[in-house]
Amino acid sequence: MAPTSGKRRVTITDVALHAGVSTSAVSKVLRNAYGVSPEMRERVRAAMAELDYRPHAAARGMRGRTYTIGVLLDNIRNAFFADILEGVNTELRGGDYQVLIGAAGFGEEDQTRLARALVDRQMDGLILIGPGFPRTEVLRTAATVPTVVIGHHDVAEEHDSVVDADALGAGLVIDHLVRLGHRRIALTSTPGNRGSGWSGTPERVQRRGYHEAMRRHGLQDLARVAMTAFSEEGGYRAGMELLASADRPTAVFGGADVAAMGVFRAARELGLRIPEDFSLAGYNNTAVAALAPVRLTSVDQAGGLMGTTAARLLLERIEGRTRSVLMTVSPSLVVRGTTGPPPATEV
Known about the structure:
Elements: H1 12-19, H2 23-30, H3 38-51, H4 57-62, E1 68-73, H5 79-92, E2 98-103, H6 108-120, E3 125-129, H7 135-142, E4 147-150, E5 160-164, H8 166-180, E6 185-189, H9 202-216, E7 224-227, H10 232-243, E8 251-254, H11 257-269, E9 279-284, E10 297-300, H12 303-318, E11 326-329, E12 332-334
Parallel strand pairs: 1-2, 1-3, 3-4, 4-5, 5-11, 6-7, 6-8, 8-9, 9-10
Antiparallel strand pairs: 10-12
């Protein structure tokens, strides 16, 4: 059958006739519904391509779906978020869902406003990456829109959760540094939004893992945490505070790679060599960590896997699953050139 000609918009009926299937079969392919054979999916996709068929978003929204997924994060400068987004796109590629990304900043009100805007625009589902707005608001949203929360360890029936074993990840860093001979090991962390109602944010779980590991090695009295923002500038300020002090630590554990890069800058300004004068480790194992001038030892959270898992769970939620699911990713330590034995005077 020849493709439809003229200016008339191609419809789902045209696709069904061209593919030799029912309109319900085409609808299932469009929805990425379960129970569609690979052969059927390929036939329908081929017909859509030949006819240059594009689903009408407004009409779909009137029928109950817009085939759009909203992703909310606090900023787009965090390279770890790019890994997560790549995973989300990988899982959704080849399907009919499109992703709209909202970077709301760190403020509770701004994040709440953007989350509500995504809901008002009839997103079929939401992926919230480390949300900083109140948990009560997230639960209200998730009660009406399928939602997956990435990062926070607080679980609820209303949404699915994808987390990293952050306490274990912190322990991997401390164990590695202690094996090298370090004792004065400092951590850079962030307070987050204290009044948001979240008790299991990644930074809190990570801090707990840091203190537990220091205590396990008998170093609890030497534990030291510099609170700052998880940003390059925040890491720089924490680095200046720690590295310019009289009791300078022999190793710094940056709670995020982006903060570790700020510590890296502070070290350069103070004339300190890494790892000869002090060791530095990060968290996230972003692409920046592997760059030749940096070669940062870091904890790999498998951000891509977290993203693909979140997207898969969200599609299941959209298709009707109501039981809550918690998926935990196991971290691993990637040792590079920024960690080594402490200076001889410290041994």
